[in-house]
Design goal:
Chain A is mainly beta and 112 residues long. Chain A is built from no helices and 11 strands. In chain A, the strands form 2 sheets. In chain A, strands 2, 4, 5, 9, 10 and 11 form a 6-stranded mixed sheet that branches. Classes of the chains: A mainly beta (112), B mainly beta (112).
Chain lengths: 112, 112
Amino acid sequence: QQQVKQSPQSLIVQKGGISIINCAYENTAFDYFPWYQQFPGKGPALLIAIRPDVSEKKEGRFTISFNKSAKQFSLHIMDSQPGDSATYFCAASIPNDYKLSFGAGTTVTVRA
Amino acid sequence: SAVISQKPSRDICQRGTSLTIQCQVDSQVTMMFWYRQQPGQSLTLIATANQGSEATYESGFVIDKFPISRPNLTFSTLTVSNMSPEDSSIYLCSVLLRYEQFFGPGTRLTVL
């Protein structure tokens, strides 16, 4: 079964809007939570990652929020641009294992 | 990050044949991984390939079907053996570099 549950499956946002993707997990041993961006025909590209010792991490227009007690984390894309249209995957791994468990993916469409 | 290449980028194969996919990285890495991504789906880990040891396979994947070689710290191969149409997928290698995982561009395999 999928160890990381991701929602929504798809979303449409207007240019300049905020895209929000949520992920939830059950395994409390997870300690590394990356987000990947994948364009059609390309491999996933590491976007941003967080560890449980911080509640938020921001890189440019991309922010991860992490709620350890709720076992949830989310990706916020601020000021969404048409070039952000892609599929986004959350993932998680346990210490010293490095094997990634991926969410189902969210297809984001940014309308100009 | 790392520069990762895969060969071939795509192939169309006949049922019952085998295909070997190559993965080359521009720096020495201890851990390499092979994933499968079925059309429109998420990524599923096939196996972990460490140089100098046998590959370790995830549940549902076996060495006879997906033999892996890891002859040095910059190269690995995955063979998809005795292919059937159900093997039609994108096959991705990834490398662990400074505790982050980076993906190659993928090999798109179609089995007729």
